[in-house]
Amino acid sequence: MNSYRNCWEIKYVFVNTTTCPIPSNFSIMNGQLHDKSVHYRESSSSGRFCYRRCSSKRSSLKRSWTVYLVLLAGIPAQGQKIQNTGHVDYFKTTLIPSPVSPTPTTSTTTTPGSPPQSPIKPVVNHHRCDNSRCTAPVPTKLNVHLVPHTHDDVGWLKTVDQYYYGSQSHHKVAGVHRCCGQSTGGSSTSSTAFFWKWWRDQSEEHRTQVRALVNEGRLEFISGGWVMHDEANTHYQSIIDQMTWGHRRLQDMIGPCVVPTIGWQIDPFGHSRESAHLSAMFGFDGLFFARLDYQDKKLRSAEQRMEFIWQGSGDVGRSANIWTHVMAGPLYGPPTGFDWEGDGEPIIDDPESDDYNVNRIVDKFLDYVSNYSANYATNQLFIPMAHFHPIQSANNWFTNMDKLIRYVNGRQRNGSNINVFYSTPTCYLSAVHQSNNTLTTKADDFFPYASDGNTYWTGYYTSRPALKRYERVGNNFLQACKQLDVLAGMGGVYDKEVTALREWQAVMQHHDAITGTEKQHVASDYALKLAKSIAGCERVVNRAVAKLAAKSMANRTVQSLPEQLFCQQLNVSACEWTESLNTSLAVTVYNPYGQPVRHILRLPITNRSVQVLDPTGAAVNQTYVFPIPGPVLSLNERDSEALEELVFEAPVPALGFVTYTLKLQDADDSPIAPVVRKVVGDFSVQTPGFDVFFDRNGRLQALRFRDSGRNVSLRQEFAYYSSHSGTNSGPDRASGAYIFLPEPKEFATDNVIAPADCNYRAQVVESPVLTEVHHYIQKYLSQVIRIDHRSDTIEIDYTCGPIPVADESGKEIVFRWQTDLNTGGVFYTDSNGRQTMRRRRDYRPTYKLNVTQPVSGNYYPVNNWIAIWDEVAGLQLTMLNDRAQGGTGFREGQIELMVHRRILHDDGIGVDEPLDEPGVDGNGLTIRGRFWLQLATVAAATELHRELANRLMMEPVVTFNRLAKGQAPHYYKKHRTNYTALYNPLPRNIHLLTLERWANRTLLLRLEHFYQWNESREWSAPARVELRDVFREFVVYDAVETTLSATENILTTRRLQFRYTNANNHLSQAFNQTHRFEPKRHELNTTDLSVIINPMEIRTFIVRIKPKYYCNM
Ligand SMILES: [Zn+2]
Question: What span, in angstroms and rounded, lies between the C-alpha atoms of 375 and 251?
């Protein structure tokens, strides 16, 4: 029996507490009724609460639920509609179970597990694997599952709103109606972003109908993310956030029974191992996609391996496995000739008509499915029936599909073995599961994706580099905003602002957003919307920082707190507040990371007479004034008078802030100006671990370990690939937004970017704590190498653009670091910023690669880091970046990263625009970016780059307060200037991945172990965290662990299990990716709310909290 049938919901509780006694197990907080024994969720309308309690045992429900309630709605009993409820006064009643009809369950699917142990409460129950609505396949026939779906891009050729408010939206609604009218089931694949827009326009009656369709299993949501995320350029934190928000909104709209169980990634241009891992953690039973390398596809088709078990992680074991289906047809569209908005011939079945064509069309379809079935190992066949974009004419589609089904099945009377019916991905998966065949496994990923020998989809790893950086800025700010909203106890006042950024940040993960494969006006719209929603979240940060900084409780509620100001243009060294300093300015640095950090502030100033006071009010001794590099000063985007930056270091506690004060003062005590000198000969700079050598042109030459004396040659080179300008007919492909195709002659020798006037111009800026080498290479290319004398990480800060194209040739700019390390063509890249993937020149782990593109075929996505090792020497060079980029290490001892592309041709994939970003003045886009270079022993390297990668994703947020003359001492008296929200920093291997408000006094909390099991002797060990002992601001008194997107109780989630062989296939290699670690999972201890987290685990909790001061009262 499916446990959801005993799931009860009490909706819309309006309590009249003045006339009714309050039962003892209820409490009043904030004027709202709370029952500690039930999970509750605030609905979208203020004052409405949805209380749920779920159990698979009716008897226990009866016993425990002498309930004080208003109205019952047994949610998902088959055929029962959710009742619309109204205002009702509070009264006492007992629970009356809704009628439960016996339901057939297929023996092939797993049934939900036993009820959770007290006191853990389930979050929801739902009809996972309730396939009673699926058409039963006929075991002796070839069963053809026709799966109608739509593919709606959340921005691509049009903006999000242009797509939604275009004529398509009305037809899409019609499509939902029509598909779901089939008694045999239907599915909707709309991104939740669009569905949410649509939902808000619907009447309550219409919404009730949709809920009923879902609850009855006739309408299914698959994937359910806010968007269908890209897998190459996305960071795992943002993938998780966007999927969580999509699922959350689905549940807000439909109710608990809507939890998607299918991952649907049909359009992204290659697929990552980490995304597969996350899909398993979202609770998906299976994953469907369409794009994989043409050589891989050919082999898999021939060997009937288009379905397999993808082992998503080598660290967390079998729970990361996910059944995967690759579509063998022309992408995810219908068979050729069956697109009833394209090439499809309408089925004319009037025998009297001269155009009667039933037999011809049925023959064609039977031929197609017979051939298509050769790709798959079972007698189930999945045929997607779709259009690239929203179905315009649903009736047309369904009328023809109805006929197709009728006439194809009619042939069975003549002995046809083919049985065709409407289906859903879930029903198909259930049927395949029933076949119980043994699958092969896959442990690496599907990058790079080539659709033919000249069409490597590796350009989009770098396309639109400014937008890719802005997405990271958005994520950083979103995390800080969500955290501060919680820590300051804003109680939902700013939900609108937080959600706006949450939703646009989610949109940015779409496979035509962060990828840079949208039209220019769409990219501009994404950036504008992101900027507006960041501005909204500034209001949250403003109030939260002000509230947390107030020393007295009374001050936390008054409105006269100082306003926090922001400088969002520090990336071009511009800041209105520091430049116009005329008395004093409080500078607050909030650290969203769960460890203390040392943050170096670089604040543009126009007056050197500045004194810096630390959080205790004492003067900071080591403050410096560094010149802003010339190429930055001349940026067209820059609106600033500042020529210099004030530089000082601020140690910031974990999840907390410090406030420094800048004060105008007498010129005598000005910060120290470093020595600026021209480079005239070789020189070196010291870090704690290295001597860093430069030549007389200021070029990096080598690093010498100071302890061992070992020297590693390290030369930097700048180059570009000329973009191939093909016709896009036949094999003559052009380089473009998606595709990277350099001119063929450049495979061996390419265009090294030489200095503008044959001389490198460099100057060294030296201070006791920091040395900078300013390096001018060309008008469009410059960099600053920054060496912090207290750190072994070297920062490279570059400015690139506008790329010159006067020669009418597109160019794709790369940075290279050439070492003398022996790498054998092997290099390592991250997978969505998480797992490490081993790459090898001209090689794929599961098939023999025919090398057609020696450069672009060796490019891989780099989200956070790329590394090379010398295994004999035991050394690793790692480059970290500040945004997603394409990179490679196929040349011996070298790392290459592509930073910018400007292309004058379109690549014929669909954007139909050249990737020629205009920049602010129409002359071409200039970007600024940073790299961090780390050289270390292999044993130490991972600890360095894992921690830095986390810190770069969660950089401090800086806010400013203008203080009137003489107000500074006052500020110190009235405000906290050094604050942490944590009792202790988290264990060093644990990352506070998510902290956000989930409902009233309820938070979503994610903790992550960010090491793989074999990476660090010390930090790859499991770590224990007690949830009660983490936060100072509130008491965590209850917690439920959920799936990764917070939809189901982890203890009741049961995913489908499949039979598989361990061998990858006959080409399997002894790769570290095939080695799997099967750790013992530790469940949340519900007594002390402690949890032990294994390497690479992400644990998601819904926690209930009380403000700290409540306990003291
Ligand atoms: Zn798409």
Answer: 37
